[in-house]
Write a structure and sequence with these properties.
The protein has seven helices and four strands. Helix 2 packs antiparallel against helix 6 and helix 3 packs across helix 6. It has two domains: 45 residues; 161 residues, Rossmann fold. The protein has 255 residues and is an alpha/beta fold. Belongs to the complex I 20 kDa subunit family.
């Protein structure tokens, strides 16, 4: 009887010991996996950050390419520090755009100065619903802006139509868009954040050595005749959302 009790006790002790060893081994392996995963994640973050450098688009291989890359960096620094937007207020979002220019947020401190002439502007802020009657004017102003130029779509109406998405008079796309600022209407802080995201995009952009050919999809008919106006209303603008497609880096309003 005593021998049986001793045997059962020894077997119980061995089971407990083996279970503790298994738990310890499992914890050790989990720790190794966690350590390895953390190392992998750090390496992934390091590689991702490395890909976002200014030289990632075209790594310089000689002195000439290095000089051109350095010139691009200087130009990008100058552009992002002196943004001159062309105001294109079409609805209530324009009030918040004016609010960003007021003393509370003081857009002048980051180099933003509104311009009334498109030939002196490099950014267009479209605030409001774009209709068929207003589309030729917007396209004409956009074509008069010098390259490089960027477009900020401000508000739900400019992004995707908003309340007027199913209206017969809303344009479905006419110019390429760089930054989408959501809201109805978006606050002045949201617009200012969108401008900061545009500055990041400018920092990562490169100056093209040759002008790209014009996109035939973006050509507008003249407004000289009734037939041209009817073709403008019936034409399917398949460039992107309401104003256009996102171009370049993924700099939409998500970060």
């Amino acid at each position: 009887m005593a021998l049986q009790k001793f045997t059962s006790a020894s077997s119980l002790i061995s089971k407990v010991a083996s279970r503790r060893l298994a738990i310890h081994t499992l914890g050790y392996h989990q720790g190794e996996i966690h350590r390895n995963s953390s190392i992998i994640s750090r390496e992934f973050v390091r590689v991702t950050q490395k890909k976002l450098t200014n030289f990632s688009l075209a790594k310089p291989n000689n002195a000439a390419e290095y000089v051109l890359s350095t010139v691009d960096q200087v130009f990008n620094w100058a552009r992002q520090s002196s943004i001159w937007p062309m105001t294109f207020g079409l609805a209530c979002c324009a009030v918040e755009m004016m609010h960003m220019a007021a003393a509370r947020y003081d857009q002048d401190r980051i180099g933003i100065v509104f311009r009334a002439s498109p030939r002196q502007s490099d950014v267009m802020i479209v605030a409001g619903t774009l209709t068929n009657k207003m589309a030729p004017a917007l396209r004409k102003v956009y074509d008069q802006m010098p390259e490089p130029r960027w477009v900020i779509s401000m508000g739900s109406c400019a992004n995707g139509g908003g309340y007027y998405h199913y209206s017969y008079s809303v344009v479905r796309g006419i110019v390429p868009v760089d930054i989408y600022v959501p809201g109805c209407p978006p606050t002045a802080e949201a617009l200012l954040y969108g401008v900061l995201q545009l500055q990041k995009k400018m920092r990562r952009s490169r100056e093209p050595r040759s002008s790209p050919p014009p996109d035939p999809r973006l050509s507008l008919p003249s407004r000289s005749s009734r037939s041209s106006r009817s073709s403008l209303r019936s034409r399917s603008w398949r460039v992107g959302d309401l104003l256009g497609e996102r171009r370049g880096f993924p700099s939409h309003f998500e970060t």
